[in-house]
Design a protein that fits this description.
115 residues, mainly alpha, single chain, globular, two-stranded antiparallel ribbon
């Protein structure tokens, strides 16, 4: 981390975690711009749909490829990988944009992420 840049503002456990049926899930990084979150969640939804379809057709290779898309999107959203609250906001935004670049390249989407 650069010397002059501090991690994100402190957050509470309620802001960091979501509990569903007794299982704790990391929340999306709240500092990400809405348009970035929307695009990442769109990729996430398509990836999850791809996992379901590939499982129905019993295609292990397609399941693995779709799960890779899900993983990239979740890393971009801050839901996987390093805890978003431990990183400077600029690093978190760059991670989200990097995930979008990867997902767009895999999807063939020419729309560049907003800066």
């Amino acid at each position: 981390m650069p010397q002059n840049e501090q991690p994100s503002t402190p957050s509470t456990d309620a802001e960091r975690w979501l509990v569903v049926n007794g299982r704790r899930w990391r929340r999306t990084d709240p500092s990400l711009p809405d348009d970035v979150v929307e695009r990442l969640k769109s990729h996430l939804g398509r990836g999850r749909s791809g996992v379901r379809a590939a499982k129905r057709s019993d295609d292990a290779e397609a399941v693995a490829a779709a799960r890779r898309l899900v993983g990239i999107a979740k890393h971009g959203l801050g839901e996987r990988g390093p805890y978003w609250w431990d990183s400077p906001q600029s690093d978190r935004l760059e991670r989200a944009h990097d995930a979008l670049r990867q997902l767009d390249a895999l999807d063939g989407d020419p729309t560049p992420p907003s800066a």
